[in-house]
Amino acid sequence: MNLLLIAADNAATASGTEERWVILGFVLLALAIVFFAAELFIPSGGLLATLCGVSLLGSVVCFFVHDWRWGVVAASIYAAGAPAAIVFGLKVWAVSPLARRMILGDDSDPAAPTSPRAAAAARREQLQRLVGAEGTAVTPLRPVGIVRIQGQRVDALADTGLIDSGARVIVVEVIDDQIKVREAG
């Protein structure tokens, strides 16, 4: 640390114009902010985040070259502000179209459900249309198994008792995300 302070002090006195280090420090800080903002919306595999970190480090070095107190203040502010900036960035990123595509899949389909509740409601509605339909038990229902109704394999719950594989069944009701069937006949 002392070596860094001595080098910074020597560079500052040798340069003659100390203000250029402050200006360069602020320019590198602005560049780091631009890289950080770009990292939120451009998938770069961390390259822009690395450039942001290098720019911040260069900014601190420039402030240390100007004056060690400026360097300490800048390093302290960056260390305290980095977690807040990351949390803020993640909150902004989470509602961006890029994040929706990465987390939930392609958001270009307007018919796609936008929330888990909407998806569950759509599934219940689809199952509700099967009430009264006939099908075949694919597996034994003891009391839960799989039935084939209208060409679809669906989890089912036997209304009463056990139903053997291959038996004809009829859908009597929908409970949550599962249909309840009774042996036909």
Helicity level, as a percent range?
A: 55-70%
**From the helix content, strand content and strand pairing, which structural class follows?**
alpha+beta
| Biggest sheet character | 5 strands, mixed, barrel
N-to-C SSE string, H for helix and E for strand = HHHHHHEEEEE
| Mean pLDDT reading | 84
**Poorly predicted sequence stretches spanning 5 or more consecutive residues:** none
Work out the radius of gyration.
32 Å
What count of domains describes the coordinates? Answer: 2
Distance between the termini: 88 Å
Which outline best applies? rod-shaped
Q: In percent terms, what proportion of residues is strand?
A: 15-25%
Report the oligomer.
single chain
Tally of strands: 5
The neighbouring-strand order within the major sheet is 1-2-3-5-4
